[in-house]
């Protein structure tokens, strides 16, 4: 009884701390403010270069002649694997069920501004990456915060991020995702959570043994497929409810600035709640500003940090502007959004069932949760491993993979109310030092970005030309990679 009481108390304390961290007066203005500041400082880069970035990341796929462990496309899909997850399905439903349809608008704003943050952290991940004793590339906030910001502040921010990232990798990147997989398989096919846990233990362990190269190959193979299947299902729902789309879009925009009145099971929400839920769940979904995607970006084969930064930027566009939008529109157009917070877990399935029938709709959503969550586990395993190596040394790689794989089984077979609360807090604590670092290092990023894009505006320069450009501009990046 004492243990249960202590666990409940701990969850309450963590919830209060997390509520402040993710509240309207701390992390939310810092996230939006940083994204807006970087958007202005980079001259609206995410709008000017989105077409070039999508072409380079999805069509060119590989930066020939660039150093790295995986291709740019594999780095993109690894980052997508870690971000396109439960937040795109349940997270969107939760935001709307609490904040109303207007929350989706603020998720869009978070995504659009977050693209500048994602570009900046990916640029820095490549710019300050190093090679470990095994010959593998290592980079991310745990590196660029210390290398880019000299003195005690840089060391403090880097260690702050490292510890928070390791904790988050076992929470939001492991236990909560494994639990979502086992719950989805149990609800859809009646699979016992222990069986799901054993299967995931074997599959995750097999992939992690191969390191980032295997993770990159696996995610590049099935992440695009799972996203396409989910989007096709959502598109069919929207086609069957085409008449409701104009009213749904109008509701999203008006409620973002007026709040939402109580209706059905929805208790009503003001503008501040819509803003808070939209930003919090938006960052939970796309991770822009958290610094996590910079770890995958650092491993990419690229001839210049700008090129990988632009590719990584498209991940936020795909996650939020495409996948999150599909989920949100399906929920609002089918009219299930007003069922109340208690229905958030099944809201997306109900919306898909309204357009596809109860059997197909529920199955597509359940299986999407399973695959999205499983891919998130793979992406976050790499993030956590790199930070464990940063904290303990290169020897920590194998022990971390073994512990991480065991925790997958634990997450699949236990209740995780406390883990969810702790994970939300760890996510916020990851973002804090990274956002401070992005602001401090924004001058370097803006200066080198402007210089490179003046030289290669369409990202078609040959490796030898990029090398000559780096030499002519006395850029030290190649010697540090």
TrEMBL record:
<dbReference type="Pfam" id="PF01235">
    <property type="entry name" value="Na_Ala_symp"/>
</dbReference>
<keyword id="KW-1003">Cell membrane</keyword>
<keyword id="KW-1133">Transmembrane helix</keyword>
<feature type="transmembrane region" description="Helical">
    <location>
        <begin position="428"/>
        <end position="446"/>
    </location>
</feature>
<keyword id="KW-0472">Membrane</keyword>
<feature type="transmembrane region" description="Helical">
    <location>
        <begin position="248"/>
        <end position="275"/>
    </location>
</feature>
<keyword id="KW-0769">Symport</keyword>
<feature type="transmembrane region" description="Helical">
    <location>
        <begin position="317"/>
        <end position="337"/>
    </location>
</feature>
<keyword id="KW-0813">Transport</keyword>
<feature type="transmembrane region" description="Helical">
    <location>
        <begin position="153"/>
        <end position="173"/>
    </location>
</feature>
<dbReference type="GO" id="GO:0005886">
    <property type="term" value="C:plasma membrane"/>
</dbReference>
<feature type="transmembrane region" description="Helical">
    <location>
        <begin position="222"/>
        <end position="242"/>
    </location>
</feature>
<protein>
    <submittedName>
        <fullName>Amino-acid carrier protein AlsT</fullName>
    </submittedName>
</protein>
<dbReference type="InterPro" id="IPR001463">
    <property type="entry name" value="Na/Ala_symport"/>
</dbReference>
<comment type="similarity">
    <text>Belongs to the alanine or glycine:cation symporter (AGCS) (TC 2.A.25) family.</text>
</comment>
<feature type="transmembrane region" description="Helical">
    <location>
        <begin position="20"/>
        <end position="40"/>
    </location>
</feature>
<feature type="transmembrane region" description="Helical">
    <location>
        <begin position="193"/>
        <end position="210"/>
    </location>
</feature>
<feature type="transmembrane region" description="Helical">
    <location>
        <begin position="403"/>
        <end position="422"/>
    </location>
</feature>
<dbReference type="GO" id="GO:0005283">
    <property type="term" value="F:amino acid:sodium symporter activity"/>
</dbReference>
<keyword id="KW-0812">Transmembrane</keyword>
<feature type="transmembrane region" description="Helical">
    <location>
        <begin position="357"/>
        <end position="383"/>
    </location>
</feature>
């Amino acid at each position: 009884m004492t243990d249960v009481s202590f666990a409940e108390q701990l969850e309450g304390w963590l919830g209060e701390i997390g509520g402040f961290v993710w509240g309207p007066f701390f992390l939310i203005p810092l996230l939006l403010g940083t994204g807006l500041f970087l958007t202005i400082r980079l001259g609206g880069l995410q709008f000017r270069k989105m077409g070039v970035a999508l072409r380079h990341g999805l069509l060119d796929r590989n930066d020939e002649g660039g150093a790295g462990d995986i291709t740019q496309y594999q780095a993109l899909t690894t980052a997508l694997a870690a971000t396109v997850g439960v937040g795109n399905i349940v997270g969107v439903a939760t935001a709307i069920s609490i904040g109303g349809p207007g929350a989706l608008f603020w998720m869009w704003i978070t995504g659009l501004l977050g693209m500048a943050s994602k570009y900046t952290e990916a640029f820095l991940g490549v710019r300050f990456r190093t090679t470990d004793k095994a010959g593998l590339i290592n980079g991310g906030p745990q590196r660029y915060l210390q290398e880019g910001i000299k003195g005690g502040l840089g060391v403090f921010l880097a260690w702050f991020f490292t510890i928070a990232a390791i904790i988050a990798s076992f929470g939001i990147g492991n236990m909560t995702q494994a639990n979502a997989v086992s719950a989805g398989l149990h609800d859809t096919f009646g699979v016992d959570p222990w069986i799901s846990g054993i299967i995931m233990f074997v599959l995750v362990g097999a992939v992690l043994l191969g390191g980032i190269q295997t993770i990159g190959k696996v995610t590049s193979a099935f992440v695009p497929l799972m996203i396409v299947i989910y989007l096709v299902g959502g598109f069919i729902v929207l086609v069957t409810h085409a008449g409701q789309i104009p009213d749904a879009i109008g509701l999203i925009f008006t409620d973002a600035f007026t709040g939402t009145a109580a209706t059905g099971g929805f208790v009503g929400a003001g503008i501040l709640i819509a803003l808070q839920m939209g930003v919090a769940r938006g960052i939970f979904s796309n991770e822009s500003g958290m610094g996590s995607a910079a770890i995958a970006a650092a491993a990419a084969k690229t001839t210049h940090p700008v090129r990988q930064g632009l590719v990584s930027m498209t991940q936020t566009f795909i996650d939020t502007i495409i996948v999150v939008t599909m989920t949100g529109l399906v929920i609002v157009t089918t009219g299930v959004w007003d069922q109340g917070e208690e229905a958030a877990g099944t809201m997306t399935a109900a919306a898909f069932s309204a357009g596809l029938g109860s059997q197909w709709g529920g199955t597509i959503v359940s299986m999407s949760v399973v695959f999205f969550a499983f891919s998130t586990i793979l992406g976050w395993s790499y993030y956590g491993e790199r930070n464990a190596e940063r904290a303990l040394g290169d020897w920590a790689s194998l022990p971390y993979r073994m512990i991480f794989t065991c925790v997958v089984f634990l997450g699949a077979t236990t209740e995780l109310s406390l883990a969810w609360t702790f994970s939300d807090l760890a996510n916020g604590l990851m973002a804090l030092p990274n956002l401070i670092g992005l602001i401090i290092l924004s001058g370097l990023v803006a200066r080198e970005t402007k210089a490179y894009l003046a030289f290669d505006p369409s990202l078609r320069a040959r490796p030898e030309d990029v090398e000559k450009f780096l030499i002519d501009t006395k850029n030290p990046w190649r010697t540090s990679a």
